[in-house]
Design goal:
- This protein has a domain at 10-42 and 61-129: Aldehyde Oxidoreductase, domain 3 (Alpha-Beta Complex), CATH 3.90.1170.40.
- 33% of the residues lie in helices and 38% in strands.
- The radius of gyration is 16 Å and the shape is elongated.
- By secondary structure, it is an alpha+beta fold.
C-alpha cells in the first residue's frame, strides 16, 4: 500500500507575489511543461450593510479540508493530463486588494491546464470547509457567502 501524502495548502495571511513567483519558477525548471494556468483570488472591497469590506478573516477545519483537497487532487489528476497542481488558500486576516487564493495547474498543453485550473477553483470554493468573516470599514462583521 502506498503512503498518502497530503500537503498543507494553508498560508497565514495574504499570499505574496514573491511566493507565487517562486512556485511558478519551480515549475519552469521542468522543460516538458508547455502550459501554466493560474487563478488568483483577491479580496474585494464590496459594499455590505452600507459599509465597505476592509478585510476577510478566513478560518478552516484544516484536517477535514486537507483530506477533501486530496480527494479533489486525485480526481483531477485522473481526469486531466497534468504535470502538477498547486493550490493555496489564506487563513487569518487578508485585506481588500490582497491575494487569498492561488491555483496553478501545469501540463504539456494549454487546454488541459486551463480546464484543470478552472475545475480546481470551482471544487475548492464549493467543497472545502473554509469560512470567511467580512470585516467592514465601520468595524462590524458578517459571514461571507460564496456565490
Amino acid at each position: 500500500m502506498t503512503e498518502k501524502i497530503i500537503n498543507n495548502i494553508f498560508i497565514e495571511g495574504p499570499i505574496s507575489g514573491e511566493f507565487i513567483a517562486g512556485i511558478i519558477h519551480l515549475h519552469s525548471l521542468h522543460t516538458a511543461i508547455g502550459a501554466h494556468s493560474i487563478f488568483l483570488g483577491q479580496v474585494r472591497s464590496d459594499e455590505a450593510d452600507g459599509s465597505r469590506v476592509a478585510a476577510i478573516e478566513y478560518t478552516t477545519h484544516a484536517e477535514i479540508a486537507l483530506e477533501k483537497l486530496h480527494e479533489i487532487q486525485v480526481a483531477l489528476f485522473e481526469k486531466y493530463h497534468m504535470t502538477g497542481l498547486n493550490i493555496f488558500h489564506s487563513t487569518g486576516k487578508v485585506r481588500a486588494g490582497e491575494i487569498c487564493f492561488f491555483v496553478l495547474a501545469v501540463s504539456t498543453h494549454r487546454a488541459e491546464a486551463i480546464a484543470a485550473c478552472s475545475e480546481a477553483v470551482e471544487r475548492v470554493k464549493s467543497e472545502l470547509p473554509v469560512w470567511g468573516k467580512l470585516i467592514l470599514e465601520n468595524q462590524t462583521i458578517q459571514w461571507k457567502e460564496n456565490n
